[in-house]
Design goal:
about 180 residues, alpha+beta, two-stranded antiparallel sheet, two-stranded antiparallel ribbon
Length: about 180
């Protein structure tokens, strides 16, 4: 788990650096500091009824949104989880062989359970993921993934963007139906 989080953090650092390099509005140290202060606001603290300091989270974290427009009643966030840095971190992580290879192999195993046209779980001895049982398939997938071209990764990224958009739409519909049910 720690390796996964460490790798993801490395990709996030690369995505934020690329973000700052991409936009002239944030290409100075002062502009970057100001952007971070706006995009990732710190919690404020209040004293509760017992005299204890209690952190209050900001109502909006702009870095989580594709953009935040200013409306007459305050900020209006648009497109959750679609900030360049989140999408690029996710894409960099998915492009890394540490995710795509095992995912591909696991899907292959799932297909093989349906080899007869019906789901047939493998015998207990074959349910473990071991080098003896899956080493050849793993090596074949690893070689295949390593040969992907930049153009193919871009196509994969575009598909991920469309999936993300679809998921966002589905989540919005669910939220609206829940909100309507509560009214």
């Amino acid at each position: 788990m720690y390796d996964w989080c460490g790798e993801l953090a490395t990709h996030a650092l690369k995505a934020v650096e690329a973000f700052f390099n991409q936009y002239e509005e944030v290409n100075t140290t002062d502009a970057q500091a100001a952007y971070v202060a706006w995009a990732v606001p710190e919690a404020t603290e209040i004293v509760d009824a017992h005299g204890h300091m209690k952190p209050i989270a900001p109502s909006l974290f702009p870095y989580m949104w594709e953009r935040v427009d200013e409306g007459p009643d305050g900020p209006i966030p648009k497109s959750a989880f679609q900030h360049d840095c989140i999408l690029n971190t996710f894409t960099l992580y998915l492009e890394s062989t540490s995710v795509i290879k095992p995912t591909t192999i696991i899907v292959e195993r799932a297909f093989q359970a349906w080899l007869t046209g019906q789901y047939v779980p493998p015998p207990k001895a074959q349910q473990r993921f071991s080098q003896a049982l899956w080493g050849y398939a793993t090596n074949e997938v690893m070689e295949s993934v390593d040969c992907l071209l930049v153009k193919q990764w871009r196509g994969f990224y575009l598909v991920l963007r469309s999936i993300t958009s679809k998921l966002e739409s589905d989540i919005m519909l669910i939220c609206l139906s829940v909100e309507t049910a509560w009214l």
